[in-house]
Design brief:
The protein is an alpha+beta fold. The chain has a single domain, classed as VC0802-like (2-Layer Sandwich), CATH 3.30.2130.10. It has 2 helices and 8 strands, in the order βββββαββαβ. A hairpin with a 4-residue loop joins strand 6 and strand 7.
C-alpha cells in the first residue's frame, strides 16, 4: 500500500459552532456537531478567531480510492504507529484516509510504516 506525504504544515482547531469563517480557504477537513466546529487546514490559512488550536501537524494519505468493504486499513496503520508511541489524528473522506502526526514524529512514523511494507512517496 502506498502513502503520500502532504507538503504543508497543518493546524487542528476549534471554532465557535455559530461562528463564521472564510469558506474560500483551502479546507482540509471540516466537521460540525451540535457542540463544536472542528477544522484541519494549512497553518497559514488558520482563521484568526479560534477557541482552541494546535499547530505542528503533518499528514499523509492512503493513496488511491478505497472500497468501503476494505477492513482494517486505518487500524493497521494506527497500530504500527501506536507501537512506536506516536499518536495520530485520523480523518476519513469518501475515498480514503488521512493520518496526521506531530511534525517531530513524521520521519519516525514514515520509517515505521516503510519497515512494515508501506511505500512512502512525497507529493509534488
Amino acid at each position: 500500500m502506498e502513502l503520500t506525504v502532504l507538503n504543508e504544515e497543518l493546524t487542528v482547531c476549534k471554532l465557535d459552532p455559530e461562528g463564521d469563517f472564510d469558506l474560500d480557504c483551502r479546507i482540509f477537513f471540516l466537521a460540525r456537531t451540535a457542540d463544536e466546529l472542528s477544522l484541519v487546514c494549512p497553518t497559514e490559512e488558520t482563521p484568526a478567531f479560534t477557541s482552541a488550536r494546535e499547530d505542528g501537524w503533518r499528514g499523509f494519505r492512503v493513496s488511491g480510492s478505497m472500497d468501503f468493504g476494505l477492513i482494517g486499513i486505518l487500524a493497521k496503520i494506527a497500530n504500527i504507529l501506536a507501537e512506536q508511541k506516536i499518536s495520530i489524528f485520523a480523518v476519513s473522506t469518501y475515498d480514503t484516509d488521512y493520518i496526521l502526526v506531530k511534525q517531530e514524529n513524521l520521519e519516525k512514523a514514515l520509517k515505521a510504516l516503510a519497515d512494515h511494507g508501506y511505500a512512502v512517496r512525497y507529493s509534488s
